[in-house]
Design brief:
Blueprint (H helix, E strand, L loop, with lengths): L2 E4 L9 E3 L12 E10 L2 H8 L10 E2 L3 E9 L11 E4 L2 E2 L5 H4 L10 E2 L11 E5 L3 E3 L6 H5 L2 H14 L7 E4 L5 H12 L3 E6 L2 H9 L4 E4 L5 H8 L5 E5 L7 H7 E9 L12 H6 L3 E4 L5 H13 L6 E6 L3 H10 L5 E5 L4
Parallel strand pairs: 11-12, 11-14, 12-13, 14-15, 15-16, 17-18
Antiparallel strand pairs: 1-2, 1-4, 3-5, 3-9, 3-18, 5-6, 6-10, 7-8
Helix pairs in contact: 4-5, 4-10, 7-8
The chain binds zinc ion (ZN).
The site of zinc ion (ZN) has 9 residues, from helix 2.
Length: 347
């Protein structure tokens, strides 16, 4: 089968299109095999190419966490889907038996693995996953849109709904609009009734975000974000900050956070080490939270939103599988607004 792979870590020159890989077989009785039609890129894919501490790959490693396609084969114990069903995949695979899974915290599973990072990925013609990792989607949702949906929306849903518990009327500041998680968070926070603030270094991205419903836009090049937030809120600051940028934004994120504020982080794309003044944290009674991926219940919730069309991911661009390196270069550039998708159906 065809796939986008790496043999070792490094820069994007390591990416290699292959058409000689074996089609994966079902191993467990509740496995399903999905014929992938579209896959989508996430920042995680760049980390995998460069190398993630503690994660080992084998040569011919198939990249990609997000994918959508058609059920091609099912194990004897599978009852939830049938051959021919259109499905979207949950990129996180858990054992669904440990104490974390049993209490609805699949991302904390002791055996947790993500497609493309710990297991063969989605930028391939076929992927085998447990049946609990796929949910059906109706024909009116395109497989390109569906592929662009899971990882970013699942991550954003857990941050906004489960962790920050954003309420109607609250002020929510989202750092670095344009990436998949930030855009999904914008849509989810707006539908919760929040007043949403977004930041970017690009006026074009801020304009796009405003068209999607952002209430307040801040260009990080031209304004001091924390000072501007305080000025526009009568010194109160915002209720919630969503920050997955890390080093470059952390200080001004905290500077924007009001009393009893909650900050949720899902990553540090600009660097991992941040500084927090503990005196401001206790005095303002902040809650600083981590979040990653989402549970099976959260996956069901977001796919419900996709089925009805209430949540649809913006797609930046679509590349054929043979142009996988160009797709990764687009992601690495940071110029994209929305998801970069790879069309796996086209050679
Ligand atoms: Zn578990």
């Amino acid at each position: 089968m065809r796939a986008l792979t790496i043999d070792e870590h490094g820069d994007l020159d390591q990416l290699r299109y292959r058409d000689d890989l074996p089609v994966p077989e079902l191993t467990a009785s509740d496995d399903v095999r999905v014929r992938i039609r579209a896959a989508a890129l996430n920042h995680l894919d760049l980390w995998v190419v460069r190398g993630v501490p503690g994660v080992r790959i084998t040569p011919g490693w198939i990249l990609g966490s997000d994918g959508a396609g058609v059920i091609d084969a099912i194990g004897p114990a599978v009852t939830s889907v049938h051959v021919g069903d259109h499905v979207v995949m949950n990129p996180g695979v858990s054992d669904r038996t440990c104490e974390y899974c049993r209490t609805g915290d699949n991302p904390l599973c002791l055996a947790y693995g993500i497609l493309g990072e710990h297991r063969p990925g989605t930028i391939a013609e076929y992927v085998v996953v447990p049946s609990a990792n796929v949910l059906t989607i109706p024909d009116h949702v395109s497989l390109t849109t569906a592929a662009a949906f899971p990882l970013a929306t699942l991550t954003a849903w857990r941050m906004v709904v489960t962790r920050a518990r954003v309420q109607s009327g609250e002020d929510v500041l989202i750092r670095g609009i344009g990436g998949g998680v930030a855009l999904a968070a914008l849509q989810i926070a707006k539908s919760a009734g929040a007043r949403v603030w977004v930041t970017s270094r690009s006026d074009a991205k801020l304009e796009h975000a405003r068209a999607m419903g952002a209430d307040e836009t801040l260009n990080e090049h031209t304004v001091d974000v924390a000072r501007e937030v305080r000025a526009r809120t009568g010194k109160r600051g915002v209720n919630v900050v969503l920050d997955c940028v890390g080093e470059a934004t952390w200080t001004s994120s905290l500077g924007s956070l009001g009393k009893r504020g909650r900050l949720v982080t899902c990553g540090g794309t600009s660097g991992p080490h941040v500084q927090t003044d503990v005196r401001r944290m206790f005095w303002n009674q902040w809650t600083l939270m981590g979040s990653t991926m989402g549970s099976d219940a959260e996956f069901e919730a977001i796919v419900g939103e996709l089925r009805t069309g209430r949540l649809m991911p913006p797609v930046d661009s679509v590349y054929p599988l043979t142009a996988g390196r160009e797709a990764f270069a687009r992601l690495e550039s940071g110029d994209q607004f929305g998801k970069v998708v790879i069309d796996v159906a086209e050679p």
